[in-house]
Design brief:
Elements: E1 7-10, H1 14-25, E2 33-36, H2 39-46, E3 62-65, H3 74-82, E4 92-96, H4 101-109, E5 114-117, H5 122-139
Parallel strand pairs: 1-2, 1-3, 3-4, 4-5
Helix pairs in contact: 1-5, 2-3
């Protein structure tokens, strides 16, 4: 079993997804970066459904989650994660352009670990992603992963 847990990036904007992956690659992390383009796909990944049914077992080291997405937004995903005993201990970082106070308040009420507003400038964006993710991947200690079937 791979001891390096993947990072799950949930982002519907292709450019932001590419920039985030580029930022993470600058740290030469050995973690695989799994991507989902909306909340429904993120939940399928986390619950081993659809095209993710045969993925390697284990939770990601951190979830980088956008808020404004089609089908299922990031706040709904965060709520589903925090209400699932198999997922609730995964660190979740909102990586969003939303500065709306209700969004921020709701995320913290639901137990988000960090709320990072995407900077407009590329260099600031890269630095924010790198520093935030490196903490959750390399420094943070998580409880042991006890996997239960979602079926």
């Amino acid at each position: 079993m791979n001891i390096t847990k993947p990072i799950l990036l949930v982002e519907d904007n292709p450019l932001d997804r590419e920039l985030t992956i580029e930022a993470l690659s600058e740290y030469n992390l050995v973690n695989k970066i799994a991507t989902a383009t909306d909340g429904v796909e993120a939940m399928e990944y986390l619950q081993y459904k659809g095209k993710h049914k045969d993925r390697e077992k284990g939770n990601p080291s951190v979830i980088l989650l956008d808020i404004k997405m089609p089908r299922m937004d990031g706040i709904e995903v965060l709520e589903a994660i925090r209400n699932d005993d198999n997922l609730k201990t995964i660190p979740v970082v909102m990586l969003t352009s939303s500065r709306e106070e209700p969004d921020m308040e709701k995320c913290y009420e639901l137990g988000v670990n960090a709320y990072v507003v995407k900077p407009v400038h590329f260099k600031e964006f890269l630095e924010a992603v790198k520093h935030t993710t490196v903490f959750w991947v390399l420094v943070n200690e998580q409880p042991p992963n006890k996997i239960k079937s979602h079926e």
